[in-house]
Structures are given as C-alpha cells and as structure tokens.
Amino acid sequence: MRHFLRKFAISNKNSVIRVISLATAGSGLLYSNSGSDSETSVLVSIPAPFRDSLSWPWQTQLIPRPSFVGPSQHGDLSSFLYRTGSVPSNDIKKEASGEVGNGPKPCCGCLGRDTIANAAASVGPAVVNLSVPQGFSGLTLGKSIGSGTIIGADGTILTCAHVVVDFQGWNASSKGKVDVTLQDGRIFEGTVVNADLHSDIAIVKISSKTPLPTAKLGSSSKLRPGDWVVALGCPLSLQNTITAGIVSCVDRKSSDLGLGGMRREYLQTDCAINAGNSGGPLVNIDGEIIGVNIIKVLGADGLSFAVPIDSVSKIIEHFKTNGRVVRPWLGLKMIDLNDMIVAQLKEKDSTFPTVSKGVLVPMVTPGSPAERAGFNPGDVVVEFEGRPVGSIKEIIEIMGDKIGKPLKVVVKRAKDRSATLTVIPEEANPNM
Description:
Layout: E1 16-21, E2 29-34, E3 40-46, H1 48-51, H2 57-60, E4 71-74, E5 77-84, H3 90-96, H4 115-123, E6 127-136, E7 139-150, E8 156-160, H5 161-164, E9 177-181, E10 187-196, E11 201-205, E12 216-217, E13 228-233, E14 241-253, E15 265-269, E16 281-284, E17 288-296, E18 304-308, H6 309-322, E19 328-329, E20 332-336, H7 339-348, E21 359-364, H8 369-373, E22 379-384, E23 387-388, H9 392-399, E24 407-413, E25 417-423, E26 426-427
Parallel strand pairs: 12-17
Antiparallel strand pairs: 1-2, 2-3, 3-5, 4-5, 6-7, 6-9, 7-8, 8-11, 9-10, 10-11, 13-14, 13-16, 14-15, 15-18, 16-17, 17-18, 19-26, 20-21, 21-22, 22-23, 22-24, 24-25
C-alpha cells in the first residue's frame, strides 16, 4: 500500500472531499470534488505496474463512453478525468454526436447506441408497402399484403413472388398490378416485371416523375452466426416497422424446413417478422441489404428466414439476361461429405472410396441426364469441369446456367475406382 495517496483540498463551505483507497490493483486513488456549480471532478490514479496489465473498457470502443475524454499525466501515474454537470462539456457533446475531437473514433463494425437506428434510417425510406387484390373470375375476395424495397432510381422494387403472384399463375384479379405505398405517403401503381416461384423472388416496377429513395445491396457471403441484423417491413400493413436480432445460421437448407423441390439455402435470424413482412429487407449494421425476408415458422418465436442477397443478385442478373431464371438439371440427389461422414460410411462399408472431401450421390433419378451419363448411387463426385469440388454449392456455381453443354465429371467408386463421366444438363422445370 505504499502507493496510497491522500489529498485534501477545501475551496468553500459547500465543498465535499472524499478519498477512497482502491484495494484492487494493489493501490490507487479516487479523488472526488463536488462544488456548488453542480460539477463534479473525479481523479483516478493507478500505479504503473498495474496500469499496463489492465484492459481498459474505454479503449475497446465497443460502446461509446462519453465520460472518458482522454488521458493526462499526474506525476508518474496516469490519470483519467470524469466530469458530470448540469451542462455537458463540448467534448461530451461531440462524442455523443459521433465526433470525438482528436481522440480515437469508434471501430468499424462496432455496435453503438445509434448503430441500429442509423442502419434502419438509411434503408427505411426505400421500404414500401405492397397490396395486391386476390380473387377469381373477376371477383375480388381480399388483398395480399407484403413489403418491398426500392433498389433502383428507375423504380425497381425487390420483393417476394408469393406477395405479388398467384402460385398457379398471374393473379387474374390483379392482372400483374400492385398498389405501392412509400414511407412518405406517395402511392403508385406498380407492375410485376419478373417473378421466380422457385426462389420466391420478384421484381415490381413503378414510374415516378420525382426522385425515389433507394437502398444499397450488400453481400451475404461474409455473414457469420451472431452478426447483428435489422428487419424492416410492413407487418399487418403497419408501415415503418423495424425489428432487430442476430443471424442464427447462414446456410439453413430448405430440406431442414421440410420444403420440397430444388435445394435452397436461407439465412436464419431471430428477428420478429409477421404477415406483411414478406419481401422486406434484412439489413446489416452498415445499412446494406443482405437478405429478403420470406418465411416465418408459425407457433415458434425467433425463427425467421431470408433469401441471401448474393443469391438474389444472381436471380436479378438472370432476369436481365434471359427474362427468367435458367437452372440446369442433372437428376442427382447429393450430400456434402466431411471426414466424420466418410469415416462412418467406411465403418459400414469397407469398400467405400477413400476421399478427404467430395459430394456423395445417394440417388439417381431414372431417365435423367445423370442416369444417361452413367452415374450410379454411391458415386462420390470429386472433380467437376476440371475443378476439385467438396460441396453441392461449388457444383452449382460451376454449372451456372449451362444448358445442353457437355460437362466432364470425375467420380470415385467402391474400392477406390475412378470414372470420368460426361453429362449434359437440361433446363429444370421451374415448377419443381
């Protein structure tokens, strides 16, 4: 306790002086002076041997701490000044507004008190409410409600197909027309330009003589479980609704959700979404769209799903190039392999090929391009078009939109035999 210091100072009758020994960190000093001017000064002195070993919370900048305005020197001990009063200091005002003088600024990607509000504010004006009449034989029975986001200054709106399109075809009552309401109260009649029922993504277009707010598309490839996200939309037609949460899973398979048809992947979040949120944006803390909200699990809390924006961007490119999404079809059921699955399969069958990675083919559709190419159940795809592959996603990316073009595939079979096959993809049925 040799570093224990004791200081006394009396300026007037209303002064209060407190000296407290800091038992932590060996020894230290906390000095408080409260005066009639309603301002308080607190001086904390920490011995150098302990100061260097401490992790200061105000240095991490995870959350702005306006109380700490910078270091000063007091003898051989470092001191930090904390000031409170009826009128905040200029430094505190600056830090509260994000301007912290010449000191360190909050780190990029860190969560502060205004992070979510700023992200929502940057995208919110571009979020729209969509309403589509529903019915048959010219008789309107109700309305389909949903959300969308203006992603182009020309009035291009990104939304869900199930909001604006009847899954049996174009809605006879709406005739491809959609009522679009902006956050600022403007109302437009939109037209459904493109829709892909498989991915549940659609494009609506509106025309405006005045400028339209737009939102920026980001990337979903670098998302990690635990990242903060914001969901915006019009649940139950309640415009300007914002909820926040985290990414729970970045590659939730459609098969995990009991959805049939072609393989799809979703972002899983715990953001609260309800009827009317469909088609609305999922946004990162930088205010960029990283997904399109699409599904909620009924009877469960914190289970929401969105189409990753990287997949959406590819769909939009297909719309621009072909007017529809072109998907090659091989007729293979595939499973990603890893070391644990390979070890388990080799335990059951010692002749299973020795591979470190690859894609297992448990089933081949009769009459499919894959069957005609000579694929067999139990084959392990290790190379596709001259490139080593270890996942279904890699195979899909290599195929792209190649229809009717021969593709070379190398497979491993029982007893480590290899075979090179040539398969010619066909265009998939969009209703599959």
